[in-house]
Recover the amino acids of this structure.
């Protein structure tokens, strides 16, 4: 048995999406910039995809820019806002401590270039307070960027509230909606966002393709220079098969949001309740305001990478925020941002299910995690000290 | 694959796991903050390590490195155990990914710490500079390469 429980990392491409993509490899393979029939067929398809995506998020076709994925969309949104801000002497950006690295590393780069960045704290449930964002905004703030849903702990942020206050203050607002698109309802108008990033492979579309929504009237500067594709905002011959796939994937996913949510939440909660029973553990992130498919939990006395590998040996494919899996000395910045000490953050497990996950799989995951945690605790000197009272439990 | 078959074998079926009651030497190195702690227990008879056990908190390569190191010193003389290098552990495991080499360093240091504890308990003199202070997070003695 092999159970895929890492849907926050990426998802399986839906069969319908693959079917839709195929003709664009060997039939409608023209370059949309070409004036001949084959090129114009591709240009029409591209336009349809743009319209479809726009209508799914309450935008207009001309407000959608195709990119190579979520990272590029985040980079472009932030760099563009920073460049436009700098022209008006506005060189301050507000974001949060637990953004994806596509955002945080871009902000680091801007800091090196002389921008000032305020990373607002999130609370212990992994939610940022709109009022804290408001407090961080200054006269010279050129951008607020807050993720829609966190990729590790799945917590959903008060985006509409933050959007409204940014609107009121006249500050540009971007949201990284990579984990939300196709899983939560998105309406750019209702959310008052100026820019929004999404990535197809998180909603059963292909990898390496995404889009940036940029509201009409908001300045957008290119990251990649070259041809006049994407109205001069993103050069490079369009990845038509992937774009066509992404449009259908978003349509399919959006149409199933209600059904999937109703199916996933009880399964997620069953998983949470089952795993929580393991002593000295803690669910990370708000239990209500979280993505329907996300479970994130820490187990005291063990390390996450060994937990993952032993689960993999049992056929369960999941993820962890331990230092060993991140390739650095520190565990995940997201887990540290919600106040977990290093000791505990090393022992984290992320299980992200999809609509294909079954009840039997949930039972098997609960049983297997219990077994592996017990085994690893049995060989852990830290656990030994904890139960002998030589070290104090952090998770009661 | 991230790890060699040898590493996976020692990780999923670690040898010499456990504790030794009344051990002649116990060595513990690492730091929970960094995500690795190794504890090695040795039993010594006439200068020979007759038994060795370990407990490790850490990633797959940390567990595999401890398992391999204990196998490599079991039945050896104390002097031979002190000669164990992290490089030898890596080789015996058919290699470790570059960013995991520090796990083999921990294994070497855990063995040394156990021997040092044995020396201390028995009033045997030794050269202090040959041993670490056990703070592997901030170790400057070993390079990670
Ligand atoms: C919240 C978030 N932002 C950005 C990204 C980057 O997206 P992509 O992999 O399409 O570049 C991801 C996924 O890895 C993500 O989860």
């Amino acid at each position: 048995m092999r159970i895929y429980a890492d849907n926050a990392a990426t998802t399986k491409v839906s069969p319908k999406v693959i079917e839709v993509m195929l003709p664009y490899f060997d039939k409608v393979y023209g370059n949309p910039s070409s004036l001949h029939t084959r090129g114009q067929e591709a240009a029409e398809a591209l336009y349809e995809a743009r319209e479809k995506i726009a209508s799914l998020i309450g935008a207009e076709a001309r407000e959608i820019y195709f990119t190579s994925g979520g990272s590029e969309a985040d980079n472009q949104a932030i760099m563009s806002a920073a460049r436009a801000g700098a022209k008006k002497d506005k060189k301050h950006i507000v974001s949060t401590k637990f953004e994806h690295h596509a955002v945080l590393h871009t902000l680091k780069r801007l800091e090196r270039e002389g921008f000032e960045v305020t990373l607002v704290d999130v609370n212990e449930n992994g939610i940022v307070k709109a009022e804290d964002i408001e407090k961080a905004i200054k006269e010279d703030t050129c951008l607020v960027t807050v993720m829609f849903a966190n990729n590790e702990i799945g917590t959903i942020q008060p985006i509409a509230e933050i959007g409204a206050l940014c609107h009121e203050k006249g500050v540009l607002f971007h949201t990284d909606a990579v984990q939300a698109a196709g899983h939560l309802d998105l309406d750019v108008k209702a959310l008052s966002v100026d820019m929004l990033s999404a990535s197809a492979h998180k909603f059963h579309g292909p990898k390496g393709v995404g889009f940036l929504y940029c509201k009409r009237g908001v300045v957008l500067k290119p990251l990649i220079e070259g041809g006049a594709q994407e109205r001069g905002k993103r050069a490079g011959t369009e990845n038509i098969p992937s774009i066509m796939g992404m449009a259908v994937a978003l349509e399919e996913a959006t149409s199933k949001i209600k059904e999937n949510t109703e199916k996933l939440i009880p399964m997620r909660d069953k998983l949470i309740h089952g795993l929580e029973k393991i002593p000295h553990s803690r669910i990370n992130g708000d239990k209500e305001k979280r993505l329907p498919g996300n479970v994130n939990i820490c187990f005291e006395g063990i390390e996450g990478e060994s937990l993952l590998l032993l689960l993999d040996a049992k056929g369960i494919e999941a993820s962890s925020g331990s230092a060993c899996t991140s390739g650095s000395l520190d565990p995940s910045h997201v887990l540290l941002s919600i106040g977990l000490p290093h000791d505990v953050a090393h022992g984290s497990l992320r299980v992200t299910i999809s609509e294909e996950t079954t009840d039997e799989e949930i039972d098997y995951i609960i049983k297997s995690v219990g077994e592996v945690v017990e085994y690893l605790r049995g060989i852990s000197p830290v656990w030994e000290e904890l139960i002998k009272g030589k070290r104090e439990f952090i998770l009661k | 694959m991230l790890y060699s078959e040898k590493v996976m074998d020692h990780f999923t079926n670690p040898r010499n796991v456990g504790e030794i009651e009344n051990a002649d030497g116990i060595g513990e190195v690492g730091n929970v903050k960094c995500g690795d702690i190794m504890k090695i227990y040795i039993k010594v008879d006439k200068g020979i390590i007759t038994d060795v056990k370990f407990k490790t908190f850490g990633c797959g390569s940390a567990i595999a490195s401890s398992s391999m190191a204990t196998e490599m010193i079991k039945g050896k003389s104390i002097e031979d155990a002190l000669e164990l290098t992290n490089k030898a552990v890596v080789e015996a495991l058919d290699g470790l990914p570059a960013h995991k080499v520090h796990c083999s360093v921990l294994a070497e240091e855990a063995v040394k710490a156990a021997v040092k504890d044995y020396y201390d308990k028995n009033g045997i003199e030794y050269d202090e500079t040959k041993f670490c202070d056990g703070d592997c997070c901030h170790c400057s003695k070993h390079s990670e390469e």
Remarks:
- The first strand of chain A starts at residue 3 and ends at 4.
- Chain A has a mean pLDDT of 97.
- The CA atoms of residues 307 and 372 of chain A lie 7 Å apart.
- Residues A 69-71, 74, 100, 102, 147, 151, 176, 178-179, 199, 210 surround pyridoxal-5'-phosphate (CB under 6 Å).
